[in-house]
Write a structure and sequence with these properties.
By secondary structure, the protein is α/β, with parallel strands linked by helices. The protein is about 45% helix and about 15% strand. The longest helix has 27 residues. The chain is globular, with a radius of gyration of 17 Å.
Length: about 240
């Protein structure tokens, strides 16, 4: 393979077994990155790893894990430090929709789970991975957000609130790194052909929205060492 734009970079992608996460992982592999892939389903990770080995000739690092097991995130950070000594790219992509309903009708357990995965897990990733990103010559953190994180929309309740909080978290993290080598940004993929989109829009023709592969170029741009953006939201709508 000719050298790619992420040649030799170590990239951790959450929610990697399907949808946008899987598409980003394949694209990063094509660009020369070594992938650390995190998802709950081992079978999905192994299937993706087969694709990556066809691209790169080498296996990815697979981490089957529930991101709400926060101690496991810390153990993963320690293991990555021992194996690689640093991390170049963090992609916080994993997320759940929760329940679309009036605010007062949401089950408290659904609210808590949505916040735990969409927000708190990303904060725990920052807490655990920031020391590794700081050891990179050009650490890059990318968090996946949504249009409803910035625009109030009826019935999107917990999901919308979690994304709004995620955006503030990422922007604060970016401000804290304004004078360093780490760059922190958000990416809004817009309407994309994923399982979550089908859950939210059950009557929509999936072919009317873009495939996950169509947003991967934006992820590469934010992951490159040459990226100068910090604290911005790249909009792919």
């Amino acid at each position: 393979m000719s050298e790619g734009r992420l040649q030799g970079r170590i990239a951790l992608v959450t929610g990697a077994s399907r949808g946008i996460g899987a598409a980003v992982a394949r694209r990063f592999a094509e660009e020369g990155a070594h992938l650390v892939l995190v998802a709950r389903t081992s079978a999905g990770l192994e299937e993706l790893d087969d694709d990556i080995q066809k691209i790169t000739g080498a296996p990815a690092t697979l981490v089957p894990m529930d991101l709400t097991d926060y101690d496991e995130i810390d153990r993963m950070g320690a293991a990555l430090h021992e194996r690689f000594g640093h991390l170049d790219i963090l992609v916080g992509n994993a997320g759940i929709l929760g329940t679309l309903s009036p605010m007062g009708h949401i089950d408290p357990k659904v609210w808590d789970q949505t916040m735990a995965i969409n927000l708190t897990a990303n904060w725990r990733l920052v807490r655990s991975m920031d020391p590794l990103l700081q050891r990179s010559d050009a650490g890059r953190a990318i968090f996946v957000t949504s249009t409803v994180g910035a625009q109030a929309r009826a019935y999107w309740s917990a999901y919308s609130v979690s994304k709004a909080a995620l955006e503030m978290m990422a922007k604060i993290y970016a401000e804290e790194n304004a004078k360093g080598t780490v760059r922190v940004n958000l990416l809004n993929p817009g309407g994309t052909r994923t399982g979550m989109r089908a859950q939210a829009m059950p009557g929509e023709d999936p072919l009317s929205v873009k495939a996950p592969e169509e947003v991967t170029e934006a992820f590469v741009q934010l992951a490159e060492p040459a990226c100068e953006h910090n604290g911005v939201t790249l909009d792919c709508r």
